[in-house]
Write a structure and sequence with these properties.
By secondary structure, the protein is an all-alpha fold. Helices cover about 95% and strands about 0% of the residues. About 0% of the residues are buried. This is Putative methyl-accepting chemotaxis protein YoaH.
């Protein structure tokens, strides 16, 4: 074989090897591209989940604030009822004293 033919054969083999390498590179790029798409979908799902968690925390905060407000209202109402009960108790005691005084006064008028 002549040197020129041998060089062409070596060059052809090199081109074939390079072609196979490029085919493998393209396949790997497609594989990596698919993995990147999968990762992107997973990230979007995580972001969606995070947004739902944030909204849930906001709902819990809102509910907690409403509950705290209602608890304060109930506490104030309970204090008012307690004060009213104390007034009623004092009035009842005063009324009992008046009834006793009236009873004493009535016994003085008995013949």
């Amino acid at each position: 074989m002549s040197d020129g033919t041998r060089e062409v054969k070596v060059g052809t083999e090199a081109v074939g090897i390079a072609g196979k390498a490029f085919v493998e590179i393209v396949a790997l790029i497609e594989q990596v591209s698919g993995q990147v798409k999968d990762i992107s979908v997973s990230i979007q799902q995580l972001v969606g989940g995070s947004e739902r968690i944030v909204e849930s925390v906001r709902d819990i905060d809102r509910t907690s604030r409403e509950t705290a407000g209602l608890a304060q209202t109930m506490s104030a109402a309970t204090e008012e009822q307690s004060a009213a009960m104390e007034e009623i108790a004092a009035s009842s005691q005063s009324l009992a004293n008046m009834a006793q005084q009236l009873q004493t006064a009535i016994t003085k008028f008995k013949v």
